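Hi all, posting the design record for the shared folder.

TITLE: backbone redesign
STEP: 1 of 1
STRUCTURE INPUT:
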């Protein structure tokens, strides 16, 4: 072969290999999945607490109506005993029961995710004085 004039031959420099990054994507994905899992569990917990709070409100309403039925003479028995039975059927406990005239007010409670929650309701004849 003949050498070409005017061309200088430069020997090729060895290229340093890129630093290994094997597994970096795995760590990122595991971290992302952990964050999404924690957020999902928090949302599920909030949903459970909200649903149980609504059930507790319904238990207070039902207990007050049961006590009101007894108080008005539609059902025989003791108003607060009827309220306690209905509250227990809703997995709640009767905390307070008081009657004033032809109306009864009840307060029920339960534990939602380890936190004590209370709801109250009133039932009976309407107040005509207002």
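Okay, here is what came back for every position:
SEQUENCE:
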């Amino acid at each position: 072969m003949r050498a070409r004039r005017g061309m200088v031959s430069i020997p090729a420099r060895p290229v340093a290999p890129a630093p290994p990054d094997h597994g970096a994507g795995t760590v990122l994905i595991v971290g992302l999945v952990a964050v999404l899992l924690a957020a999902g569990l928090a949302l599920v917990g909030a949903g459970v607490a909200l649903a149980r709070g609504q059930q507790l409100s319904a238990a207070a309403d039902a207990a007050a109506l049961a006590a009101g039925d007894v108080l008005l003479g539609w059902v025989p028995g003791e108003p607060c005993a009827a309220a306690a039975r209905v509250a227990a059927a809703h997995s709640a406990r009767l905390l307070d029961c008081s009657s004033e005239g032809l109306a009864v007010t009840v307060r029920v409670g339960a534990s939602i995710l380890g936190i004590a929650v209370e709801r109250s309701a009133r039932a009976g004849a309407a107040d005509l004085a207002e």
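COMMENT: Residues 26 and 32 are 10 Å apart (CA to CA).
Let me know if anyone wants the other runs.
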